[in-house]
Design brief:
68 residues, mainly alpha
């Protein structure tokens, strides 16, 4: 993994709220690949079956803005 990807992964792992939405939408996990929740928590370092679809990152809850 190159330096840019390592930084991105660190940011994603830090931002993980533990909602597990990523597991539900991950096409790799649905076909026997790694569980993105376990990867984000640092419990599974073997991400060789990840197809990098981006669904896990897109499924994360977004902060909502409060009306001013």
């Amino acid at each position: 993994m190159n330096e840019i990807n390592t930084k991105l992964m660190d940011q994603l792992m830090t931002a993980c709220l533990g909602c597990r939405r990523c597991t539900k939408v991950c096409p790799s996990h649905a076909h026997g690949g790694c569980d993105p929740y376990y990867v984000m928590k640092g419990w599974d370092g073997n991400v060789t079956k990840c197809i990098a679809a981006g669904n896990a990152a897109r499924s994360a809850p977004r902060p909502t803005r409060r009306p001013s």
